[in-house]
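Lecture 7 notes: from sequence to structure.

We start with a single chain of 310 residues. Read the sequence below before looking at the structure.
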Amino acid sequence: MTTLLLARGRAARLALDPTLAGLLGGLVAALSWGGYLALMRAGVKSGLAGPDFLILRFGVAAVLTAPLLVWRWPQVRAIGPGRALALALAAGPLFVLVGSTGFAFAPLSHGAVVQPATVAVGGLILGTLLLGEAMTARKALGAGAVIAGVLLVGGAALTTGEAGAWIGDLLFAAAGGLWLVFTLLLRRWRIDPLAGAAVVNAISGAVVLPAYLLAVGPDRLAALPPGTLALQAFVQGVLAGAVAVAAFAVAVRELGAGRAALFPALVPATAVLIGIPVAGEVPGIPQVAGLVLATAGLVLAVTRGRGGPR
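Now the structure, written as tokens:
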């Protein structure tokens, strides 16, 4: 009986540990984004455009997270209209439109590397300079391993590609910059994760839904095969629009903007792995090595070692 009570107490402490919660939140977000990028590239190749991804992302996510506006109303109200608009501008329609347009010029390997690398490197630098987060030797070493892993996963792909791929790379960097702003604002304003996700999706959905219906109409999406439409709606709206945003906000709150910004560095590896069944692309030895190196660096950077939270 005593052993059982001790085990339950230990499990409760682990469940409440902020580092563990932040780590799990960041990993969920990274996996969701990997699938989101792989399916977005597949969608672009099949004829979908930026406006289509906007309605799939925010039309679905706004409906899913609408109950949170009531459930978390005190936290939603505390955000305020000015901050809510700033969050939606950084992580809303503009972010999705810029990122999806990049795939019209460059392949998945480019988007899966440039965008998260921008967030990872920029988050460490700006988190230290603007938010006063300490740049410890452990964090710097882990960040270096993450960046090296990113380069192994997609560095070779960035030296080759389609004509005009540099345009896509610039768009991916711009999208990464927008998400970096979102990350820093979440941390600086200490936004409640669920309230932040609900506010971003509500504002974005209110803008995107009527604009899409007036400018494009429902016939474009209705012409897609039902299975394709359902899969894109689930990945874009449920995973990327609702789950990933809330999970990443948990990582920012518990780990800080600098550490949380490292999780997008896992997206290249997850996107490559998910791209095996989606795009039929099998990762090579450098990509597998990059996955291992980036994962080890991430664990090193987000944990505090002996004497700190595990």
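Confidence is low (pLDDT under 50) at residues 1-14. Keep this in mind for problem set 3.
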